Amino acid sequence: MYVIRNWLLGTMLVTALCVAPALCIGAPIPDTITINTLEKLYDKVKFNHAKHIAAIKDCGDCHHHTTGTLMEDPNCVRCHKYGNESKTVSCKGCHSVNPFSAETLAEKDRNQATYHRDKPGLKGAYHQSCIGCHAKKGGPTGCLDCHGRKKEGDALYSAGEFAPKAGAKKSGH
Question: How confident is the model over 62-96, as pLDDT tens digits?
Fold first, then answer.
């Protein structure tokens, strides 16, 4: 009971302090974050963190948890309710860049048995959080609204100079 009461008081204190975002994670908060996971296909995204903090005001709207606190995401809390404090708030701290790589799948098999199989990869986590919120609040939701596509991306997606020409005959087999 004592542990639960102290945990609850600590959680309430952290929640109250999160009105001042710098206190949420106990470390300097960057005004801009560069997201470059898909750098081969797209330009780096310069995420205006300061603008989002001013608009949202609650760290928990984007982050499942803050550094030094226990997990808050309902899916995580199912197993990690009294787990260790979080060491990172970055998406890539928990979400894999290559969720379907042989290495990532083998790691899941070795360490978590059937757990964490539903955890999205990094790209999925960004898109669920960003696009979901933007759709609700009227922000940009189109791919190219945030990502400038490079020539390599155009080639992969048959866009730009690589787009099929109007009236061109399709090759058949």
Answer: 876 665 566 666 777 777 666 666 667 788 877 88
Residue 7 has pLDDT above 50, yes or no: no
Look at strands 45-48 and 32-35 and give their pairing.
antiparallel
Nearest-CA neighbor of 56 among 111, 133, 132, 167?
A: 133
With respect to residue 173, please indicate whether it lies within any of the assigned structural domains: no
Give the number of C-alpha atoms closer than 13 A to the C-alpha of residue 61, restricted to the C-beta side.
Answer: 17
Burial of residue 54, with CB atoms counted within 10 A of its CB: 0-12 exposed, 13-18 middle, 19 or more buried: exposed
- Report helix, strand or coil for 76: helix
The tokens for 155 are: 């080639």
The total domain count for the chain is 1
Query: What integer best gives the mean pLDDT of the chain?
Result: 74
Q: What is the pLDDT of residues 99-124, one digit of tens each?
A: 878 887 777 676 655 566 677 888 88
Q: List, in sequence order, the alpha helices (H) in 18-96.
A: 22-25, 49-56, 74-80
Q: How far is CA 61 from the centre of its chain?
A: 12
Residue 58: give the domain boundaries.
2-162
Q: Are 141 and 40 in contact (CB under 8 A)?
A: no
